[in-house]
């Protein structure tokens, strides 16, 4: 069986090209020419993308928290004070053992869950 050469064919102009020079230098210094630029890209990318990400979440927070003053006044106007002891005694006074299960009416066309 014939043995094929492992050396790839390269034209004579390839030896003086930038790609050939980079390939030779990469074989000698792999971290400096491949690893270091990769790590630098990751670190600098995180610094450049942090403000964009912060702006995205700030905009989302503003949208969620934005209510009008009338709504805010309406929420605080009719509040009643809550006393934990009072709520406990209200629940304790209810008869929780005597109850009846009642079915909620379904909307027309809604599946009732029975197969």
Automatic annotation (TrEMBL):
Pfam families noted in UniProt: COX16
InterPro entries associated with the record: Cyt_c_Oxase_assmbl_COX16 (IPR020164)
A GO BP entry: mitochondrial respiratory chain complex IV assembly
Top-rank taxon: Eukaryota
Membrane topology (UniProt): Single-pass membrane protein
Keyword Transmembrane helix: yes
GO cellular component, one term: mitochondrial inner membrane
Transmembrane annotation, as ranges: 31-55
Coiled-coil zones: none
Protein family: Belongs to the COX16 family.
UniProt-listed PANTHER family: CYTOCHROME C OXIDASE ASSEMBLY PROTEIN COX16 HOMOLOG, MITOCHONDRIAL (PTHR17130:SF14), MITOCHONDRIAL OUTER MEMBRANE PROTEIN 25 (PTHR17130)
Purpose: Required for the assembly of the mitochondrial respiratory chain complex IV (CIV), also known as cytochrome c oxidase. May participate in merging the COX1 and COX2 assembly lines.
Protein name: Cytochrome c oxidase assembly protein COX16, mitochondrial
Originating organism: Neohortaea acidophila
